[in-house]
Amino acid sequence: MAAKWVGRCPDCGTWGTVNEVAVLSTVHGAAVRRAVAPASPAVPISSIDPGATRHFHTGISELDRVLGGGLVPGSVTLLAGDPGVGKSTLLLEVAHRWAETGRRALYLSGEESAGQIRLRAERTGCSHDEVFLAAESDLQTALGHIEAVQPSLVVVDSVQTMSTAEVDGVTGGVTQVRAVTTALTMAAKTTGVAMLLVGHVTKDGAIAGPRSLEHLVDVVLHFEGDRASALRMVRGVKNRFGAADEVGCFLLHDNGIECVADPSGLFLDQRPAPVPGTAVTVTLDGKRPLIGEVQALIGSASTGSPRRAVSGIDSSRAAMITAVLEKRAHLSVGSYDIYLSTVGGMRLTDPSSDLAVALAIASAYADIPMPATAVAIGEVGLAGDLRRVTGMDRRLSEAARLGFTSAIVPPGVKDGPAGLRLLNADNIGGALRVLREIADNKG
Ligand SMILES: Nc1ncnc2c1ncn2[C@@H]1O[C@H](COP(=O)(O)OP(=O)(O)OP(=O)(O)O)[C@@H](O)[C@H]1O
Ligand SMILES: [Mg+2]
């Protein structure tokens, strides 16, 4: 132990290994503990009014769905997404709809000038008088704006461009982002304002700043979308007031953002006409269901050892499924070259995609296209049996939500969501029979 800072340990001689430890002031060897009288005493849980955490509709149905009904006063919601995905457009629309119902909204932008936002408002028809604008990147001034305007909704675009003089560090850095979010959370809790924060994402898709940013806020939403298409999805990642596995669908146009209450037709329109060798499954990414597509191509019969090229799927699992198809379903694919791939670089490591892999290979081999309205979910065992997988309800709901009308599933899966026909197959042979039937009836 040393009373002053030392770079080198006096005992062992190594550098940088001595840590600083704060010493508690002690009286006769015991640490001094002082109790402070609380400003607001603790109260019985039953005496707290639950009405204070009611959801207020944002006026955008798809966003309300993800939020679990709407925005809760005093809550902080973080919306994270890639550059240019449409975050500012969506949140300006939220502010506008909020104002339309007679409430006041304040839009604080640290990225764009008030003029730029006004231009967007003109283009998207979001210029309601009760939407207040301020181009501000200083946190203290931003808090001042909130006090002056007295809104019930505040949009902060974005948390990475706000900075405070109270802590060191560069704007957008870990220390600043944390300090800004903490201050905004405090402001939301004390004033009862619903706060919507825009967050930037890093190259690998995480929210820029510390991971703990997600702990500081009440709701975390991810805004996803492909530049090549107008479809945008808002996914709940964390929600203290509702389910965190909801998805909201939108279309981003030149003149604003539009809710897609029924994305099924849209999703299927984007898919080309069914071709042999493709099968769709629903995988779970954490708690989030994702639609994935497996593609298979059967090459020519090899005299030597056949080629197996796999991308996005576990190669040993693919080899096992091929062997099961050969032995249990009497599909003599063993001597052919087989190429397997997922679409869009997706990784299907979950065993629930086994059945889709098997059906993609069988569909390519027998030249039977699987209908574009069908999904296949299930694990394939070595005996050719089909096994149930976790989160079946969630997967089936996602399939139903995205417009699929039939699902090939293992035995015992009985209750599906409305609109989704469950086709139980006991084993891999049964699944191939079901595939033939639905291909004949087109789903
Ligand atoms: N003048 C315009 N006409 C048509 N479309 C436009 C126009 N300006 C922007 N857009 C569209 O709006 C999209 C999203 O804009 P928006 O500013 O809402 O995204 P953002 O997620 O806030 O981006 P950033 O991360 O840069 O803040 C753009 O990618 C573009 O396709
Ligand atoms: Mg923006």
UniProtKB/TrEMBL annotation:
Residue positions binding ATP: 81-88
Gene3D superfamilies: 3.30.230.10, P-loop containing nucleotide triphosphate hydrolases
GO biological process, one term: recombinational repair
Residue interval(s) of motif RadA KNRFG motif: 238-242
Keyword Ubl conjugation: no
Keyword ATP-binding included in the entry's annotation: yes
Positions of region (Lon-protease-like): 337-443
GO molecular-function terms, A-Z: ATP binding; ATP-dependent DNA damage sensor activity; damaged DNA binding; hydrolase activity; zinc ion binding
Cellular component annotations (GO), alphabetically ordered: cytosol
Keyword terms of this UniProt record: ATP-binding, DNA damage, DNA repair, DNA-binding, Hydrolase, Metal-binding, Nucleotide-binding, Stress response, Zinc, Zinc-finger
InterPro entries given in the database record: AAA+_ATPase, DNA_repair_RadA, P-loop_NTPase, RecA_ATP-bd, Ribosomal_Su5_D2-typ_SF, Ribsml_uS5_D2-typ_fold_subgr, Rubredoxin_2
Domain of life: Bacteria
Residue ranges crossing the lipid bilayer per the database entry: none
SMART domains: AAA
One matching Pfam family: ChlI
Entries under SUPFAM superfamilies matching the protein: P-loop containing nucleoside triphosphate hydrolases, Ribosomal protein S5 domain 2-like
All residue ranges annotated as the RecA family profile domain in the record: 52-201
Coiled coil stretches, renumbered: none
Function statement: DNA-dependent ATPase involved in processing of recombination intermediates, plays a role in repairing DNA breaks. Stimulates the branch migration of RecA-mediated strand transfer reactions, allowing the 3' invading strand to extend heteroduplex DNA faster. Binds ssDNA in the presence of ADP but not other nucleotides, has ATPase activity that is stimulated by ssDNA and various branched DNA structures, but inhibited by SSB. Does not have RecA's homology-searching function.
NCBIfam families: sms
Family: Belongs to the RecA family. RadA subfamily.
PANTHER family named in the record: DNA REPAIR PROTEIN RADA, DNA REPAIR PROTEIN RADA-LIKE PROTEIN
Domain comment (free text): The middle region has homology to RecA with ATPase motifs including the RadA KNRFG motif, while the C-terminus is homologous to Lon protease.
Protein name: DNA repair protein RadA
Naturally occurring in which organism (per UniProt): Mycolicibacterium arabiense
Encoding gene (name): radA
